[in-house]
Amino acid sequence: MRILLVDDEVRLADGVRRGLEAEGMVVDVAHDGLRGLALAEDHDYDVIVLDVMMPGMNGYRVCRELRAHGDATPVLFLTAKDGEWDEVEGLDTGGDDWMTKPFSSAVLVARLRALARRGGRERPALLEAGDLRLDPAARRVVRGDTEITLTAREMSVLDFLLRRRGEVVTKREVIANVWGEDFEGDPNIVEVYIGHLRRKIDRPFGRAALETVRGTGYRLSATGG
């Protein structure tokens, strides 16, 4: 699941980002409305989280601009304000849900997953490549009749590869979609997780679905290997 978090409170946003990443989500962060709007226009997100009071462009205006351009991505507003008028305005601009700071991380995660299931963009309920299947909502992976246990990050990598099955994806694309645009670590982390996945979804079954395309990136066979 890929989330856009737009909040000018840097420390709070960083804490929320780390909490969501621990749940296996990919999180891009912007600290003002204009940057948030630019990211939303350039990338596909499952849910957009908007603070209301921000410099440059407030959350209401960001949401209004997105809806005016036909972007139906679910929007959840975060704010320290708790008046009934604010909630009405947020929902009237096209928002889908509302949380007041401070909030429970567990409740935020549950709300985001519920909004993602409801969806704005049509997304496949089940991702398949031959007999390899991933259910994003249930967070369940099976090969044939065998259930496979993956970590949250492995699940995110496989989710991205299945959505692009049959295509060559670059290491940079994997990082941007799984670790986020702001990732500053070693890009070879992708190779590590590809290795983890091969040991779990391929080798025990005598398959070779995950292919390294030398000098370019990786490809997950559309037939499951």
From TrEMBL:
- What is the originating organism of this protein? Brachybacterium phenoliresistens
Kindly list the positions at which 4-aspartylphosphate occurs in this protein: 51
Enumerate the InterPro entries for this protein: CheY-like_superfamily, OmpR/PhoB-type_DNA-bd, Sig_transdc_resp-reg_receiver, WalR-like, WH-like_DNA-bd_sf
The answer to whether UniProt assigns keyword S-adenosyl-L-methionine to this entry is: no
Decide whether keyword DNA-binding is in the record.
yes
Q: Which residues bind DNA?
A: 124-222
Provide a GO CC annotation, any one. protein-DNA complex
Record-linked Pfam families? Response_reg, Trans_reg_C
The Response regulatory domain, residue ranges: 2-116
Which GO molecular function annotations are given, in alphabetical order?
phosphorelay response regulator activity; transcription cis-regulatory region binding
Q: Which GO terms describe its biological process?
A: regulation of DNA-templated transcription
UniProt-recorded name of the protein: Transcriptional regulator
OmpR/PhoB-type domain residues: 124-222
Q: Which SUPFAM superfamilies match?
A: CheY-like (SSF52172)
Q: Which UniProt keywords apply?
A: DNA-binding, Phosphoprotein, Transcription, Transcription regulation, Two-component regulatory system
